[in-house]
Design a protein that fits this description.
The protein has 653 residues and is mainly alpha-helical. Helices cover 73% and strands 3% of the residues. A two-stranded antiparallel ribbon has the order 1-2. The model has no long low-confidence stretch (mean pLDDT 90).
Length: 653
């Protein structure tokens, strides 16, 4: 039974995507949301059945479709692999995608491009589920690129808007940088594993299958430790791009130009978590390269704090949430990098990161959809300076957004509290037991500071949006109202998950015990210390209280602080000017080179090519003079040729 379920989990959204692409504007016009919801919903139901009845934790499933290509000793099969890690990801991706698709049915109502939108969403869910189910690195890379393509299509969905088109191109190009490193890492792994196994993988496996790579990892580590570390860093480069980590984080905030359901689905809950999933999936490799893990943790720590500092001063509600996503992904990488502390800590670190990924998907999707609900009611205005006091006119959005904000702030007993404290505990263990105690000591301070800033900026957004006097922009009309039920029900469902899912699987360690069956993650959970829980809670509450004090109790205090710390305020508001720096250092010089190349191409290369192309015609015109069609001319030419030949022969003799 599990076999056919495994094929239909990606198959159902693929069928929906094909139907919508072929018949969305004709036979299926008007019901394209229903087709998408049906395809993604079937995938979600089958994913849940697979988790609870497939017994994948005890007996992982491996299904071979067919041999895709074979070149020398590189053979790639279309193979699906379901274990505890991939099943958890399937449930998270398809459940959130189903709720977002239902919400999008109301949000995109009346849009002329609706069939195209839902076809792209269905294609994305297919690509993401195939990425999760891929049984080898090549197939992983193929669908890694496929979700990037879907992201490009959905960010630029409103392609008539220059901002949306520019954001789509920016996301695509920035991701190419990381993906190039990812491809190099896969090729290097292929070479190292091939050498370790003499090009002969175990029976029924290929060189780039996960199981083969993990079996050869110890041999590779002993023979080429530096090359293995290099391969891990190259693989991590792909995660830096896809998961928007420093210094490739600049694409994600601009991606908010896409429709809000896209932000909730791709750029909060699913696609951007692919990098975290990939590093966790390959944790048996990273375990043998502690230096690479230290780099992972460092980049994650820098990203988490940097993005939180930027989010403090932003006024676009969706961009605040975008920088929050970047920051939370950074925390996940800090946890993954903390696995360098040793074999006992590695499973705790990796599963802690995945636990935060799991809970974050629900409450961040909730916050993004709540922002979309506000935007829908305010006439597409999303600047929090232009409205306030919405809690009375939008009660469902207000309460659900509050649940999401509390979960993100890590306030007990909501889900973010349990997963955030897992990360705090793991980083604390790394500071005591890792080979880099000083590094992780600083990272522990950074994680605590990031947690406090997170609580502050999310409640700044919440309070400025829903509290204070009622104030609406002109675009909202005279009677702003709550979103329709088709948009409100997914908010309620996500709020329930954000509130209770951490409590359901966190304290009992059910999440840990399930995921510990995945390759490389076998271990025992570390009970959360009361001191860690108390510290995390106090830091979160301090951030919430500070936001209330600054924006509600003393509303003029924010302006005073902005003037007093004007230098930092301008840096944060300007996003630390990364876009401007990249433009000056990379974009403008490359554009100059391109313009120069174009000028040389037109003025030199094109003219040279045209001159060379004209020579045969010139020679042809000269020869045409002798091809007049007159017999007398041909006879004269023959006589002249004969005379020249005679003179030559006489001269030679």
């Amino acid at each position: 039974m599990a076999d056919w379920m495994l094929w239909w989990i990606p198959g159902a959204p693929l069928v929906a995507a094909i139907l919508l692409a072929c018949f969305g504007k004709t036979a299926l016009r008007g019901i394209s949301p229903l087709v998408c919801v049906a395809g993604v919903g079937v995938s979600a139901v089958l994913s849940l059945l697979l988790m609870f009845t497939g017994n994948v934790a005890e007996e992982p499933i491996r299904l071979l479709g067919y041999q895709w290509l074979s070149i020398g000793d590189l053979t790639v099969d279309i193979v699906l692999q379901a274990d505890a890690l991939s099943t958890m990801m399937l449930v998270m991706v398809t459940t959130v995608a189903s709720l977002v698709a239902i919400y999008a049915a109301g949000y995109m109502h009346g849009d002329p491009g609706q069939p195209r939108f839902f076809a792209a969403v269905s294609l994305f869910v297919f690509s993401m589920t195939m990425l999760v189910l891929s049984g080898n690195l090549i197939l992983l890379y193929v669908f890694w690129e496929a979700v990037g393509l879907c992201s490009y299509l959905l960010i630029g969905f409103w392609f008539h808007k220059p901002e949306a088109a520019a954001a789509a191109k920016k996301a695509f190009l920035v991701n190419r940088i990381g993906d190039f490193g990812f491809a190099l890492g896969i090729f290097l792994i292929w070479l190292l594993v091939g050498e370790a196994l003499n090009g002969l993988p175990p029976a029924g496996q290929q060189l780039l299958d996960y199981s083969t790579v993990f079996q050869a990892a110890e041999t590779v580590s002993r023979a080429h430790p530096t090359l293995l570390m290099t391969a891990c860093l190259l693989l991590f480069a792909g995660a830096v791009g896809k998961s928007a980590q420093f210094p490739l984080h600049v694409w994600l905030p601009d991606a908010m130009e896409g429709p809000t359901p896209v932000s909730a689905l791709i750029h909060a809950a699913t696609m951007v978590t692919a990098g975290v999933y990939m590093v966790c999936r390959l944790s048996p490799l990273f375990a043998l390269a502690p230096e690479a893990q230290a780099v992972v943790a460092t980049i994650g720590g820098i990203t988490a704090l940097l993005a939180a500092l930027i989010a403090l001063t932003q006024f676009d509600l969706k961009r605040i949430l975008a920088y929050s996503t970047v920051s939370q992904l950074g925390l996940m990488f800090v946890a993954l990098g903390s696995g360098c502390s040793g074999e006992e800590i590695l499973p705790v670190a990796a599963i802690g990161a995945m636990f935060h990924l799991f809970t974050h998907a629900f409450f961040k999707a909730l916050l993004f959809l709540g922002a979309g609900s506000v935007m829908h009611s305010m006439g597409n205005v999303i600047d929090i300076r232009q409205f306030s006091g919405l809690r009375r006119v939008m009660p469902i959005t207000h309460w659900t957004f509050l649940v999401g904000a509390l979960a993100l702030a890590g306030i007990p007993p909501l889900s973010g509290f349990w997963s955030k404290d897992e990360i705090l505990a793991v980083v604390g263990l790394a500071a005591e037991e890792s080979p880099y105690p000083s590094l992780f000591g600083w990272l522990r301070i950074g994680v605590l500071l990031t947690s406090g800033l997170t609580a502050f900026y999310i409640f700044r957004a919440y309070l400025l949006t829903f509290w204070g006097e009622e104030r609406f922009p002109k675009a909202a009309g005279h009677h702003p109202h709550e979103s329709p039920p088709v948009m409100a029900y997914p908010l309620i469902a996500l709020a329930v998950c954000a509130a209770g899912i951490g409590l359901a699987v966190g304290p009992s360690h059910a999440f840990f015990h399930f995921l510990s069956h995945a390759p490389g993650l076998k271990g025992e959970p570390h009970p959360l210390a009361a001191s860690v829980m108390a510290t995390g809670t106090l830091v979160g509450l301090a951030g919430v209280f500070t936001a209330w004090w600054v924006y509600i109790a003393r509303p003029g205090l924010a302006t005073t602080w902005a003037k007093r710390f004007s230098g930092f305020y301008r840096m944060s508001l300007g996003k630390f000017f990364f876009d401007e720096i990249y433009s000056a250092v990379a974009v403008k010089p490359l554009e100059g080179i391109a313009d120069t190349s174009s000028l040389v191409d037109k003025s030199v290369i094109d003219r040279l090519v045209d001159w060379i192309a004209g020579r045969p015609a010139l020679v042809g015109r000269w020869f045409r003079k002798w091809q007049s069609g007159l017999i007398q001319s041909y006879a004269a030419m023959m006589f002249l040729g004969l005379m020249l030949l005679t003179v030559y022969l006489v001269w030679v003799e």
